[in-house]
Each structure stands twice: as structure tokens, then as C-alpha cells.
Amino acid sequence: MRIDIITVLPELLQGFLQESIIGRAQKRGLADIHLHNLRDWAVRRDRRIDDYPYGGSAGMVMQCEPIDRCITSLKAERRYDEVIFTSPDGQQFSQPMANQLSLAENIIILCGHYKGIDHRIREHLITREISIGDYVLTGGELAAAVIADAVVRVIPGAIGDEQSALSDSFQDDLLAPPVYTRPADYKGWRVPDILLSGHEARIREWELQQAMERTARLRPDLIKK
Ligand code: ADE
Predict the structure, then answer these.
(1) How large a percentage of the chain has pLDDT more than 70?
(2) How far apart are CA 167 and CA 72, in angstroms?
(3) How far, in Å, is the centroid of ligand 1 from the Cα of 84?
(4) Domain boundaries, the chain
(5) CATH for 172-224?
(6) What CATH number labels 2-152?
């Protein structure tokens, strides 16, 4: 899949996108992520892309024209399944949403900044607004990174061990069971005996019980769902 991220701070995302699973997925050709500096589409000579809001309220607003020019140039090259705007007003991001977006061929993520973007962009160009939580970030870049990471890691082949993405917390509305590695006894802190038993079926049963117990205790809202 291809993800085009439109931002005024491409440097903020550059390093992140080259690391770990998301970096590897790109090297393997599973994901193709492009950063676009919105200032490259500015119409003013000083490369500014914001202006004062009509009505006299405080803060600056991102203008229509640079955003429209950038999105229009991308759309001239290929068809996009979604044009996403990161905003605290959006639909709350979730694992099912990440799974669904991972099936898309091409998506655009527009990172918001300042006080917001000219509302006409949201009305005419944005197909989906996504929030990563009920708090306000300085810009949409961290939200775009969160969305891209969660989407790319569920693309088949992005994670070496495919089972591992499926057993993530939230894939089945359950938190993941605890995991342990060597040594089996560290300063007297012992790994549960069942995991050393070699009894595959009982281990899977224990993991499910642990996942249910942890979910009921830590996230009872997920059980109700
Ligand atoms: N931009 C600012 N705050 C945000 C949030 N919580 N989610 C997505 N984008 C944002």
C-alpha cells in the first residue's frame, strides 16, 4: 500500500518512518510512504501556508490553496481510497480501523496544525477525520505516525512472525497475555511453570485465561463490548 503524508514538519516523521517494522516493511516493498512538505505548495513567496481566521478569533488557520494544490497533484497520479485528516474532532482510532485501512491501496494523511484548517478543505477534500485520543496535540504529525505504524504492522508479511500481529492486544478485544524470556529464574522471580511444561494445548489455554483475566481487571470496557 502507499501512504502519502502531507505535513509542515516532514523532518519530524522522517526518522520514525525509517525504523523498525515500518522501515522494514518499506524496504520489503509492502508499504510505500511518501512525505510531502506543505510549504512546497505555498502560494506566497515567504512559503507561509496559514492566515488569520475570519471572524477575528485567536490563532492561525491553514489555508485552502496549498492543501488543495498538494492533494490535487497526488490525485492526478492515482486513485485514493481515503483522504484522512488528523484531528481531535475525528473518529477515535482503533485496531479495527487500522485493520481496515491496511486493506487500502492508497491513502493520504493530512496533518493538521495551528488552530485548524480552513473548513472548506474538510467539507470538500477530506473523506475521514481520525483522532488518536481525547487530548490536543500541537500538530497532527504524531497522530499520522501512530496511524501509519498501526496500519503498516498488520499488512501480511510486515511482521516476521505473522502470528505475532494477530496476537496483539485488541485484535480480539482482549489484552495480550504476559510474556517471558530467559532466564527462567531471575533473582528468584520465576517464569510460570506452565510455560516451561512444553504442553502446547495447556499453554494456549493458560494464555487465553490470562488475557481474559487481565482484560476484565484492566479494561472492563472491552469485555462489555
Ligand atoms: N491533532 C491534534 N490533536 C490530535 C489528536 N488527539 N488526534 C489526532 N490529531 C490531532
Answers:
(1) 99
(2) 39
(3) 12
(4) 2-152, 172-224
(5) 1.10.1270.20
(6) 3.40.1280.10
